[in-house]
Amino acid sequence: MSNSPSTPAGRSGQAPSTPEGRSGRGLLFIVSAPSGTGKTTLVERVVQRVPHLRMSRSYTSRPARVGEKDGVDYNFISRDLFEEMIRNGAFLEWADVFGNYYGTALADTDAIRASGEDVVLVIDVQGARQVRSRGIETVGIFVLPPSAAILEQRLRGRSKDSEEQIQTRLQVARREVGEYTRYEYVVINDEVESAVDRLRAIIIAERARVTPTCSEAESIIGTFA
Ligand code: 5GP
Q1: Considering the domain boundaries, does residue 12 fall inside one?
Q2: Quick check: helix, strand or coil at residue 132?
Q3: Closest to 127 (Cα-Cα) out of 30, 7, 59, 203
Q4: Distances (CA, A) of 20 to 23, 79, 217
Q5: DSSP 16
Q6: Would residue 11 count as lying in a domain?
Q7: How many CA atoms lie within 13 A of 66 on its CB side?
Q8: Can you tell me which atom of ligand 1 is nearest the CA of 95?
Q9: Within a domain: residue 8?
């Protein structure tokens, strides 16, 4: 079986199968962290290094920032359209974060997982709670900054926000960090490359977990009979 990112599992139309021998639907990873922790950078790097792993692109009603592209960073849509999608049940989860809507389309994650690839949602703690409450099996990873003071420094350093926005983000962060025990793993983003390594290790280990649907392993066991 190929381990190359250019030949993703499931493309052949046969039963999708990941390189580590799991068959069937891809896993659903959730990465949450306070704003400014650097979670998007970590996930972008991990996705580049781990084959068969895709990052879900969220929908948002927030206007694009300078340098952000529609269909790349987010799907930027109007509040009206977002509310229509909520009414139509199009979201796996959605939340109001800092006064804007953010959400993950159910059809997007379903399509990725049905092809046998794993998907990572980079979403806030409210969204993570919604996914869990639907009874969907997830692997949650909470990213923590090394300290509150370092988070504050990072928020100031990226100079995207006003003083008022920084204070709001810090206040929300205080509430969010208390939720880390609801996640299966915690990664401290002290140094980007080592945090990426730890995230990658978690994903690889989760793929090797024994589950009742480990049909490729079962067929190998069958050859020993
Ligand atoms: P930003 O506006 O800085 O890109 O993102 C603000 C916050 O929204 C971040 O904490 C981010 O994790 C969260 N977020 C981004 N996309 C989604 C999503 O699809 N669902 C939820 N619940 N939160 C999201």
Answers
A1: no
A2: helix
A3: 30
A4: 9, 41, 10
A5: -
A6: no
A7: 3
A8: 22
A9: no
Distances (CA, A) of 125 to 86, 130, 145, 148: 19, 9, 15, 18
CA of 85 to the centre of ligand 1 (A): 17
The residue whose two tokens read 């080592």 is 194
pLDDT in tens, 101-159: 999 999 999 999 999 999 999 999 999 999 999 999 999 999 999 999 999 999 999 87
**What tokens appear for 32 in the block?**
């949450």
Ligand 1: residue of 56, 69, 98, 102 to mutate (most ligand atoms within 8 A of CB) is 102
Q: How far is the CA of 36 from the centre of ligand 1 (A)?
A: 11
pTM of the predicted protein model = 0.88
> Tokens standing for 65?
């920032």
Ligand 1-lining residues (CB < 6 angstroms)? 35, 58, 62, 93, 95, 97, 102-104, 122-124, 126-127
Q: Is residue 38 part of a domain?
A: yes
Q: Which residue, by CA, sits nearest to atom 15 of ligand 1?
A: 123
Total domains present in the chain: 1
Q: Which of 60, 58, 57 is nearest to 101 (CA)?
A: 60
Residue nearest to atom 12 of ligand 1 (CA): 123
Q: For position 86, which CATH number holds?
A: 3.40.50.300
Give the structural domain span for 55: 19-222
- Please name every residue paired with 60 in a beta bridge, in sequence order, or none if there are none: 76, 102
Task: Give the gyration radius of the chain's Cα atoms.
Answer: 19
Residue 168 in tokens: 């709001």
